Amino acid sequence: MRYIEPHGHMVSRTTDDYQAMVTAGCVAVCEPAFWAGFDRGSVDGFRDYYRQLTEYEPARAAKFMLPHFSWLCLNPKESEDLGLARDVLAIIPEFLPRPNVLGIGEIGLNRNTRNEMTVLEQHVELAVSHDQLILVHTPHLEDKLKGTQLILDLLGSHRGVKPERVIIDHVEEHTIQRVLDRGFWAGITLYPDSKSSPPRAVDMLEICGRERIWLNSACDWGVSDPLAVPKTAIEMRRRGYGAEFVDAVLYANPLRFLSQCPKFRLGDAPVG
């Protein structure tokens, strides 16, 4: 079995996790910028983090022959300081040409605040102006449905946003259809204790179909599983789905979305 891990925070994982993922069939991992577990207090702190995502982490993954890609942004948890956010967004363009950068993400909302909305809008403008793919985080701490609707309305109001180039992640049963109906891609996140489980994820696939959907582990500092995606393949097979279905959801779907960025390459040749 082959699969792509389209959303994993590998800076928080051990080299054993890389080895286990490759052994399980992972052929590429994509790492969005996220919260460090604390609020960073300076632009230089973010600059060092972006270097980690674009220099050190790809080199660490390469030791296991695993292509590593990244997304850049300011996480919504760090959006309340508008001055710092403005200064951080100003340095992101210098990293966008780097060979493993796929786009802007994971942007979005945490507590659905006014400042978070302001910074989200600035991120969207940055992505559109630089023709970047967009990866969006939907909230967990506050009303997910309200936050998702706020995000959909903001994206829908921007004339430069192309829905097929945006994936809205962490969807659940009450938000996935809204995302798909607006033409966006939907990401289902597999967490042991929250977001979604393998049975719930397969339920959503059975109800909504498999088009424009990817599955990810979003493995990070907390309770999470870097092997959640291949473990969900077991649930698919348990329900009678064959290798073609598994491959379509876990490999072909993320491949199709990510290949919209010409820098997404597996091996020596561009994919797609």
Q: How would you describe the overall organization of this protein?
A:
- With 272 residues, the chain is α/β, with parallel strands linked by helices.
- The chain has a single domain (3-270), classed as TIM Barrel (Alpha-Beta Barrel).
- It contains 9 helices and 10 strands.
- The strands form 2 sheets. Strands 1-2-3-4-5-6-7-8 form an 8-stranded parallel β-sheet. A two-stranded antiparallel sheet has the order 9-10.
- β4 (101-108), α4 (114-129) and β5 (133-137) form a beta-alpha-beta unit.
- α7 crosses α8 (228-238).
- The radius of gyration is 17 Å and the shape is globular.
- Mean pLDDT is 95; it is low at 268-272.
Mean pLDDT across residues: 95
Main beta-sheet annotation: 8 strands, parallel
CATH topology: TIM Barrel
Q: Judging by the overall fold, what is the CATH architecture?
A: Alpha-Beta Barrel
* Order of helical and strand elements: EHEHEHEHEHEHEHEHHEE
Radius of gyration: 17 Å
CATH class wording? Alpha Beta
Give the structural class.
alpha/beta
Low-confidence stretches: 268-272
The CATH homologous superfamily name equals: Metal-dependent hydrolases
- Main-sheet strand order equals 1-2-3-4-5-6-7-8
Q: Any idea how many domains?
A: 1
Distance between the termini: 19 Å
Q: Determine the number of helices (DSSP H or I, runs of at least 4 residues).
A: 9
